[in-house]
Write a structure and sequence with these properties.
It contains 9 helices and 7 strands. It has helices at about 15-60, 65-100, 110-120, 125-130, 145-165, 195-200, 210-215, 220-230, 260-265, and strands spanning about 105-110, 130-135, 140-145, 170-180, 180-190, 235-240, 245-255. Strands 1, 2, 3, 4, 5, 6 and 7 form a 7-stranded mixed beta sheet that branches. The structure holds adenosine-5'-diphosphate. Adenosine-5'-diphosphate binds next to helix 5 and helix 8.
Length: about 270
Amino acid sequence: AEPRLVAVRAAPVSPRLVLLVLRDITERERVEEMRRDFVANTSHELKTPVGAVSLLAEAIESAADDPAQVRYFSGRMQAEIQRLSALTNRILSLSRLQASDELRDVRDVSIDEVVTAAIESHTIQADSAQVTVVRGGVKGLWVRGEPQILTEAVGNLIANAIAYSPQGSKVGVGVKLDEDVVEIAVTDRGIGIPESDQHRVFERFYRADQARSRRTGGTGLGLSIVKHAVQRHGGEVRLWSRPERGSTFTIRLPRTEAPDLDLVRPKARR
Ligand code: ADP
């Protein structure tokens, strides 16, 4: 059948509706483009450690008669495998945060517990970098959200603060209340971030000063996870930084009332 041009004069379509539909299509295209970029970048980033593991396997095979060399190559292989596993974990976290609109397991979350867990999971890194993590500020604040996601976000900031700090320095994790917003600030006296990079460090796979960042063995996904995690919780991340002076990353989250713990915890007996 021939296509026909039919003039339909039903209810007039408001220009606003047309605009909304158009916006919806461009938004879908944007999401699709982001997804394609993500897959492309991810595959690219995975290729490097996978290639290294494969080369190291060959090196081990050809050094079979020399135990010292075998030990050396297998040590390096383990390091690459660890990197690969950290990278896949982060890719999974990020794609989960980007995929679903809803948080899965929302509850009252104690900021004290989030900070404790985030610091504890980085004690090995801090010890081996000889960096001291000090904690301060207000206690007893609560937010609504998913504890694991929030702990991962704070943990990523702590990991960076340690990674980009000199030996013997201190990293601070402070909590305070700004009106109805809970602020968790992670401060370091490390290398800092040039102003021109500051708005880009939250992008996936973006790393300021490639050469130096590469040595820290990061993935370029940490801050992107932080940003998405915090946005999912209705919050925002702020950054203050000066090269050679250090950086402060601040997570800001809407505060919620402390739950009535008497309901869940039996009162202490007198
Ligand atoms: P990475 O795994 O490379 O640390 P992130 O997404 O966590 O990836 O950070 C992106 C980039 O931002 C880093 O490569 C680094 O250049 C810069 N950066 C992040 N945190 C800090 C910090 N505390 N001090 C200096 N630079 C930082």
